[in-house]
Specification:
The complex is a heterodimer of chains A (273) and B (297). Chain A is mostly helical and 273 residues long. Helices cover 74% and strands 0% of the residues of chain A. The model of chain B has no long low-confidence stretch (mean pLDDT 87).
């Protein structure tokens, strides 16, 4: 009995540590300046206000939101289509010798490069192509780090679908590709949806490439707006919190939607969870 | 007739056709830049005048005599080492404690996934507020037990450890979830046998749980090490590498060198050191994982 109580006390403590900072952010975003600097700190604002959010709108919030959404969705579509095809090939066919495993690991290894290594040459490539400060430039760089993720996730999902169904479809007169499109692909839809949501989150959260590749309001994403509220000499506490809340909200919604696949997604499909 | 021929050719070579777009894209977007970077690291390039000149190994010589490079290496090492070890310890402890059915476990697991899914930039913002000097909640709490005036990320003595605390908050749930998934996939037979043989809880952990859990442990450690070695977002927003370079890690110093000081040659040379360390660690873990027969499917 005491063991049980102790466990719940421990659990509640851990939950407070995890959740409280997030609630504190939300609360700060609707505080007025007096409440932000109140001592002792207050959790529930005395005069809740939306002025930090209004301030963000005045600073082009919607442009950043639009950029983030377009970049995330476009990256997701491109990497899902291209990556799923490759994943299917690696899961179903045998390449000569050990090439199946070699290519799989090569694909994975590109994801392990620290981004700072490739960003300098990539930036110069984008500059030559005139893609600096464009959303297309970001989509291209984001596709590079989302592809390996999609390939490994989808490869795992396809491996779980029995081959027999495809063989039946081919006996019935489907081409090889037709058999894939009519049998395995529909069966992989739950995995595909989870993988797509992960790529949306990864692109939405990304900061380093966005910082280097995009500087204008026509191209910069939400994390850039968040970071710009933290100036060298002063911090706009209210706006910074409001921007944080806006950047966080869709991610949390998506994360709860895919929580069944979360462990799998976080480990590139290595831990089934 | 030709279309039919093309279709059969396509069907026969389908495995290569499906792979081709991914391989081409990755070659162009990761391998080509890498080769470009190798060349650039032997050149001195000025981003403003856009001129190259061959510099031999001068970038590497400069790097090894640059105290800021060693400072960044040291900070990256401390940050990675301390954060990953603490996150692993806490995550394992939590997973062991919570590896049983109890009311509210699913709610707890759902809440635990929040910190690591948040944009890192938002995590930085949250702890900017929590660590606020005169008005922050953390200093108020410390004040209750008689500690006053902690400067957290604004003082060079405490800055790196303040960032590590934030990293631990953000990523312990990751270790916890991976290790918990590993624990729940363990077979029950060895445990029954051990109990029949009269093994104590510590012996059971040491001789059964730990060896069986090794693949999950390796994956969790590998992914966290790769991520902390490249840490950028959190530090960029919270301290910008300061105060007095106390939190400048490799990624930050490379970024500053390339995009603030326009010294691409030096920056790529330094980024190679980071790459080599990452690849060495990655290879070590992947070979262990292959030996454990994970990643084979």
């Amino acid at each position: 009995m005491t063991g049980k109580i102790l466990r719940y006390v421990f659990l509640i403590l851990v939950m407070i540590v995890v959740v409280f900072p997030i609630i504190w952010l939300i609360s700060t975003s609707i505080k007025n300046d007096v409440d932000i600097f109140a001592m002792p700190p207050i959790l529930v604002p005395s005069h809740p206000t939306g002025k930090s959010y209004v301030g963000l709108v005045d600073n082009g919030l919607f442009a950043y939101l639009l950029n983030s959404s377009i970049v995330a969705v476009a990256t997701c579509l491109v990497s899902i289509v291209i990556g799923t095809l490759a994943a299917y090939s690696l899961a179903r066919f045998k390449l000569p010798g050990t090439w199946t495993s070699r290519i799989s690991f090569w694909v994975l290894s590109t994801r392990m490069f620290p981004p700072i290594v490739t960003i300098i040459p990539l930036f110069q490539m984008l500059r030559v192509m005139g893609l600096v400060n464009t959303r297309l430039g970001l989509v291209i760089t984001y596709t590079a780090f989302n592809l390996p993720f999609v390939v490994w996730m989808m490869r795992g999902f396809f491996a779980e679908i029995p081959r027999d169904i495809e063989e039946v479809a081919m006996v019935e007169g489907c081409t090889r590709m037709g058999a894939f499109l009519r049998t395995s692909l529909p069966l992989a839809v739950p995995g595909l949806a989870a993988t797509a949501i992960f790529t949306l989150i990864l692109s939405w959260n990304e900061f380093l490439f966005a910082l280097i590749v995009t500087q204008t309001t026509q191209s910069a994403t939400l994390p850039i707006l968040v970071a710009s509220r933290v100036g060298q000499y002063q911090i706009l506490w209210g706006q910074m919190s409001a921007a944080g809340v806006i950047a966080m909200a869709p991610v949390l919604a998506f994360a709860f939607a895919v929580q069944r696949y979360l462990v799998r997604g976080m480990s590139f499909g290595a831990v089934k969870g | 007739m030709n279309i039919k021929r093309l279709a059969t050719w396509g069907d026969r070579n389908l495995k290569y056709l499906l792979l081709a777009p991914t391989i081409v894209l990755l070659l162009v977007l990761t391998v080509y830049p890498l080769f470009f970077a190798i060349i650039a690291s032997f050149e001195t390039f000025n981003i403003r005048t856009a001129t190259y000149s061959f510099g031999g190994v001068s970038n590497f010589v400069n790097m090894f005599t640059d105290p800021f490079f060693w400072n960044a290496m040291k900070n990256t090492g401390i940050y990675t080492g301390v954060a990953v070890v603490v996150e692993f310890g806490l995550g394992l402890a939590l997973a062991l404690v919570l590896n049983e059915r109890f009311a509210g476990r699913d709610v707890f697991r759902s809440l635990m996934l929040a910190p690591m899914m948040l944009p890192p930039i938002v995590v930085a913002v949250i702890f900017k507020i929590v660590f606020m000097q005169n008005f922050g909640i953390s200093n108020w709490l410390l004040g209750l037990i008689g500690i006053h005036g902690m400067l957290w990320e604004s003082a060079s003595r405490t800055a790196l450890f303040s960032l590590i605390i934030v990293d631990i908050w953000e990523w312990t749930p990751f270790m916890f979830l991976i290790l918990l998934a590993g624990l729940q996939a363990l077979p029950s037979d060895p445990y029954e046998a051990a109990i029949v043989d009269g093994a104590g809880p510590f012996q059971v952990f040491r001789h059964i749980t730990f060896p069986l859990l090794t693949p999950s442990i390796l994956i969790a450690l590998l992914l966290r090490l790769m991520d902390t070695l490249r840490i950028f977002d959190l530090i960029f927003v919270m301290t910008g590498g300061g105060p007095a370079n106390a939190t400048e890690t490799m990624s930050l110093y490379v970024y500053q060198t390339a995009f603030r000081f326009s010294n691409v040659g030096s920056a790529t040379a330094m980024s190679f050191v980071l790459l080599i360390i990452t690849v060495a660690i990655g290879n070590f873990f992947v070979s262990r994982l292959r030996a454990e027969e994970v990643f084979t499917q």
